[in-house]
Amino acid sequence: MSERAAASAHQFDDAEQQHDASTLGMWVFLVTEIMFFAGMFTVYVAYRSLYPDGFAHASHHLDVLLGTINTTVLITSSLTMALAVHAAQLGRRRPLLIFLVLTMALGSTFLVIKGFEYAHKFREGLVPGPWFSYHGADAGAQQLFLSIYFAMTGVHAAHMVIGLGVLGTLVWQARRGRYGKSYYTPVELSGLYWHFVDIVWIFLFPLLYLIGRHT
Amino acid sequence: MSEHVVPVRIYFTIFTVLLVLTAVTVIVSGIDLGRMNTVVALAIAVTKAVLVILFFMHLRYSTKLTWLVVSAGFVWLSILILFTMTDVLTRGLVALTQH
Amino acid sequence: MESTQPRVHYLNADYGIRSWLFTVDHKRIALLYLGSITVMFLLGGVFAGLIRLELLTPAGDLVEADTYNKLFTMHGIVMIFFFLIPSIPAVLGNFLIPMMIGARDLAFPRLNLLSWYIYIIGALFTLWAMLIGGVDTGWTFYTPFSTMASNTNVIPTALGIFITGFSSILTGLNFIVTIHRMRAPGLTWFRLPLFVWAHYATSLIMILGTPVVAITILLVGLERAFHLGIFDPALGGDPLLFQHLFWFYSHPAVYIMILPGMGVISEVIACFSRKAIFGYSFVAISSLAIALLGFLVWAHHMFVTGMSVYAAMIFSFLSFAVAIPSAVKVFNWTATLYEGSVSFQAPMLYALGFIGLFTIGGLTGLFLATLGLDVHVTDTYFVVAHFHYIMVGGAIMSYLGGMHFWWPKITGRMYPEAWAKIAAVIVFLGFNLTFFPQFVLGYLGMPRRYHVYPAEFQVLNVMSTAGASILGIGYLLPLVYFIWSLRYGAVATANPWHATGLEWETPSPPPTENFERTPIVTQDAYAYDTQEVQVV
């Protein structure tokens, strides 16, 4: 069987209702994800308005080049993900697999670069808490910035790891011929999730990396 | 079911625009525009996000209900931030009448 | 017209523990939740009993201050997160929503089961935290006490609540998609039972609010574990920021706890007045209005914290506004009763009690929303009385009313009506004796969360504890006779109340697939005026 027949689970009347329901469900889930990150964005906005200089200074600890590379990597992974969905829609199994694997490779690259950034922070004593190595006048505000940095990029990275797991599952299922022109919903919905994670980074990058550059 | 298949060239066009906007945001951040730096950075980020949502996530081809759902998410995000900031930004305005 | 019990229905379609633990039938999942939340309710009640015992005397002679702090913390956490928030949605909502809309199940049955497992895992974490010593921060987890100073088990408790939040989120997601996409032919939005409208609005709140408390609790846990400094005042961190994030969810959460109850009340009032709900569309839209406005008022919990007076004025004004849609419902239920053919079976007794007690609770909310008054009564027993009038006098009464109303449908048995009426009266009297004195105590100045108090407050405290004992008896009675009825109760017909609604047009208990054929809806809800049969 190269594609599942247009069947539907018992609670649905037909495949179209199932597809519509699943799609709506994923979008509603993404709204919950927006609100999950919203809490941290609120913390960011509040503290940046209270300590603009401390935040700008602390932002210098972040490597803009690595951040820009990572942004490019993620945007490219969104492209490959969109192309994967496109391939699934047209029932092309090989391109689907290739684009899924490419997306995973790009996502992994992002995480590896992030890992290097975190390791650098640990070495430089920039982790907030008892081992924070900077003791200047705005050390408090800098620690607030770095706390938010680790919290936001950490939660974002956790979402990427989950995303890689999801994509891996898609690759496994796609290899077994589960997806085709009449049924590719999991690919489509996973794409929505992946793009969402990309959008979070689109905001994190300027807000964390680019705020102190001109000072 | 008739699912809209987006032409590949649109994906590549959007991709290119996203890369250009990324370059722009990095370059502009190096120029001192005062308060406008934040405004420009956010405007570019919002534009990139809108492009991803409309085209990569197919919102442009989706139902009105989906539009409503997405809008609700961003409206609620704004409520949380804006209403919190009404407190954070106006605390210092209260003048003590006596010490 | 009378339908005999089918030989095969959802309870006997399959046997064995695996058929329950791996079920995807929304009706069985509802019963799984029923068992779990009842256990948690009893646990929360034990904590309440200990609190009231301590408060019999002015001195702190039953428990230490630290222990008392743990008691009220754990009472709040268990009752709010593990009883009130799931109660009606996870039990009655899960059971009834697919049936009320003519569907075979919810949109995502496996997600529904996952919801329950997530609830159980979260509950186990929280119970473990209690067993190893509990938490003393208050259910509100205010920083920096929770992040830096408390030496109790904040992290496991936070983890338990964080996990349980996803149960709520998945339930809300399931309900929203189901109601949008799976209504039977002819069932337009404005023909839906108000129970469904209420749960739709509740689900919106679950979706939009719960993730915020989830991230907030996560940040508290991360701060405690890894010494991140997000709420640390020494670094310039703002304790009020935690409160904003916390209350952004926790205020709408109270509407999660009351809206489903309001849905139950609409169904019960209509049935036992033999009349359509007055102003149906106003009541329907008011649920959405409560959900929306409920998100705009949270800082009324923070009036005395040092927040901006200007922001406080905005939140105060909006807090008055949010009372309006609730008032619309109360007026419309009352108008429904007027010139209705009213009968007083147990569900109706609970519904009538709800209207009175919820009104008192709601009006006292306006006292608290008034900035000047709040300075005097905030953090006193006035607040405690206010929210217990709504949560217990409102939400729990509506939960019990709903359980009685739909018990025949769920189990195929009638409960003993005489005992149910007695229990309802005991609950009503016990409740008022417990909590009305607390309004007075609060106004006189007794602070909340204290285990000692001045001697002149003892009489009112003794009244309150006496009431709590009576209330406890009132709650135990249904536990006993509901279980009794499973074996010895009268066999129920498909529609013992002659109520309108699709759930009554299928046998009691229903078959697994709910309906033999998908119904086609041609009438508005509550078409009591065109019914041929009068209730006996």
Structure description:
The complex is a heterotrimer of chains A (215), B (99) and C (536). Chain A has 215 residues and is mainly α. Helices cover 76% and strands 0% of the residues of chain A. In chain A, helix 3 packs antiparallel against helix 6 (185-209) and helix 4 (93-124) runs antiparallel to helix 5. The longest helix of chain A has 37 residues, at 139-175. Residues 1-5 of chain A have low confidence and may be disordered. Chain B has one domain. In chain B, helix 1 (8-29) runs antiparallel to helix 2 (36-56). Chain B is flat, with a radius of gyration of 20 Å. Chain C has a single domain (25-526), classed as Up-down Bundle (Cytochrome C Oxidase, Chain A), CATH 1.20.210. Chain C is 66% helix and 0% strand. Chain C is built from 16 helices and no strands. Chain C has helices spanning 17-21, 26-54, 65-84, 87-100, 109-131, 145-149, 154-181, 194-226, 239-273, 280-293, 309-337, 346-369, 371-377, 381-411, 417-444, 458-488. Chain C is globular and about 70 Å long. The two termini of chain C are 15 Å apart. In chain C, 59% of the residues are buried. Classes of the chains: A mainly alpha (215), B mainly alpha (99), C mainly alpha (536). At the A-B interface, helix 1, helix 3 and helix 6 of A face helix 1, helix 2 and helix 3 of B.
For the record, the CATH architecture of chain C stands as Up-down Bundle
The coarse overall form of chain B would be flat
Rounded Rg of chain B? 20 Å
Multimer state: heterotrimer
Query: What integer is the average pLDDT of chain B?
Result: 90
Total discrete domains of chain C: 1
Q: Class of chain C in CATH?
A: Mainly Alpha
Class by helix and strand content of chain B?
Answer: mainly alpha
Which stretches of chain B are poorly predicted, pLDDT < 50 over at least 5 residues?
A: none
Radius of gyration of chain C: 23 Å
- Helical amount of chain C: 55-70%
Q: How many helices of chain B in DSSP terms? A: 3
User: What's the end-to-end separation of chain B, in Å?
Assistant: 72 Å
The ordered string of helix (H) and strand (E) elements of chain C is HHHHHHHHHHHHHHHH
Number of strands of chain C: 0
Uncertain segments of chain C are: none
Q: Which two chains form the greatest contact, residue counts included?
A: A-B, 49 and 47 residues
